[in-house]
Write a structure and sequence with these properties.
Shape: globular
Number of helices: 12
Oligomer: single chain
Order of helices and strands: HHHHHHHHHHHH
Mean pLDDT: 77
Low-confidence stretches: 250-282
Strand content: under 5%
Largest sheet: none
Radius of gyration: 21 Å
Number of strands: 0
Structural class: mainly alpha
Helix content: over 70%
């Protein structure tokens, strides 16, 4: 059963996120990948294998791992302006692994780690590269092997982390659970196929969606010992999806508010609009 979860669940979620992004844009792909599409299955599989105490500790450590995921997004986005996908992936993975090794040494209450993670997401979004004017996304169909390659890559990485979880222990397993597996797959393919501008949009969406990911990890850490595996993961997933669904809605509301402010702003004679006083004199 757990082998089937490793081989099917996370790869299927990555493929679904990719298809949604092709239909509605790269930013939505990032938001969807911000769901625990890989960390969720990893935490579930390790909890089934090692018990709820192991799962609670791993989920709490996963909150720290989310700070490394935010670092990955920043490093990959900046490198995408200067290197190809392989260079960007190597630099961002190196930064992420160094951060993970350091963070695995920390032991903090889940609530404090949750606040630290939220602060990290905010800071990372402020240091992302600015949106660049780039060519419109390519409309050339992706090669036939694109989706199978994404699924196979995701499955291989999930197998590696879950197989090593017993030897790594809950702290390191938890920190590695949010390791940018799905994010790496979609970001590398986006950079190779669609360029830096589209990749930065995708990674901005990822950062916007990480709050739902953090909510998932927090609730698993707090509830899995009390409610059991099925109930805790069900509640955590429902809450994560609800938070994630609010991200695009909040973006639209903020955008609408800015548009309204622009419409209501007074015009000045030098801004290209007609000055009513001058018009009356003519």
């Amino acid at each position: 059963m757990t082998l089937l979860l490793k081989l099917v669940l996370a790869p299927a979620l990555v493929v679904a996120s990719t298809l949604a992004g092709r239909r509605w844009g790269a930013r939505l792909t990032g938001v969807l990948v911000g769901l625990p599409v890989v960390a969720g299955p990893i935490l579930l599989i390790t909890t089934l294998d090692h018990g709820t105490g192991f799962g609670a500790a791993a989920a709490s450590s996963a909150l720290l791992g989310l700070t490394s995921l935010a670092l990955f997004a920043v490093v990959f986005a900046w490198c995408s302006r200067r290197t190809g996908w392989l260079g960007a992936l190597a630099a961002s993975w190196a930064a992420c692994l160094v951060a993970d090794v350091a963070l695995a040494r920390l032991t903090l209450p889940a609530g404090i780690t949750f606040v630290v993670a939220l602060a990290t997401f905010w800071g990372a979004s402020r240091v992302m590269p600015p949106d660049a004017a780039g060519p419109p996304p390519s409309t050339v169909p992706s090669p036939w092997w694109d989706l199978p390659a994404r699924a196979a890559t995701t499955a291989a990485l999930v197998l590696a982390v879950t197989t090593a979880s017993g030897a790594l222990g809950p702290a390191m397993t938890g920190v590695l659970a949010p390791f940018p597996i799905a994010s790496s797959v979609v970001a590398a393919f986006a950079l190779a196929q669609r360029g830096s501008a589209e990749t930065v949009r995708l990674l901005r969406g990822l950062l916007a969606g990480l709050t739902g990911f953090a909510v998932f990890c927090l609730l698993v850490a707090l509830l899995v010992d009390r409610l059991g595996i099925a109930a805790a993961f069900g509640v955590a997933l429902a809450a994560s999806v609800a938070v994630q669904a609010a991200v695009p809605l909040a973006g639209r509301l903020v955008g609408a508010g800015r548009d309204a402010q622009d419409d209501d702003a007074p015009t000045t004679p030098g801004d290209g609009a007609r000055d009513p006083l001058r018009t009356g004199r003519r």
